[in-house]
Amino acid sequence: MLKRNGPKKLKSIVESYALKCIKNRISRNEIRLILNWKNIVGTEIAECTKPKKISYAQNINSGVLHLVVINGSKALEIQHMVSLMIEKITIFFGYKAVYGIKIKQESIDYFTI
Q1: Non-local CB neighbours of 102 within 8 Å, separated by 6+ positions
Q2: Is residue 22's pLDDT more than 70?
Q3: Which DSSP category does 7 fall into?
Q4: Would the pLDDT of 3 be above 70?
Q5: CA 45, CA 53: separation in Å to the nearest integer?
Q6: CA distance 16 to 44
Q7: What are 62-107's pLDDT values in tens digits?
């Protein structure tokens, strides 16, 4: 007999579909980080930042997060919050998936996509 757990959340369906479809291009951690960015770091930081990619070194499960920031003043604020953001990412994944963050300032056009 089949058990019914009720309806699934749309977020979990989209996440699992994205993980299957884009499996070869970017890592599973990057997809989860991008989809859950607002929940991980909070709305204040998420409004002015977007994760771009995670660069991994050979034979290491931890990487450097490349983060895009709207303007220079926000970049300075974010620079002071790097250790807090790494801690929040570690809590989300359950292990140290990111050991460093590189901040890059880009235009607002990136955020409209």
Answers
A1: 64, 65, 66, 67
A2: no
A3: P
A4: no
A5: 17
A6: 27
A7: 889 999 998 888 888 999 999 999 999 999 999 998 999 999 988 7
- The number of beta carbons lying within 10 Å of the beta carbon of residue 52 is 16
End-to-end, the C-alpha distance of the chain in Å comes to 45
- Which bin fits 106, alpha (ψ -120 to 50), beta or left (φ > 0)? beta
- Give the total residue count for the chain: 113
- Global pTM reads 0.73
Q: What percent of the chain has pLDDT over 70?
A: 79
Q: What does 51-75 look like in DSSP terms, one character per residue?
A: EEEEEE-TT-S-EEEEEEESSHHHH
Provide the 8-state DSSP code for 98: E
Q: Residue 86: how many CB atoms within 10 A of its CB? A: 18
How many angstroms separate the Cα of 35 from the Cα of each of 10, 18, 24, 58, 73?
12, 9, 17, 25, 25
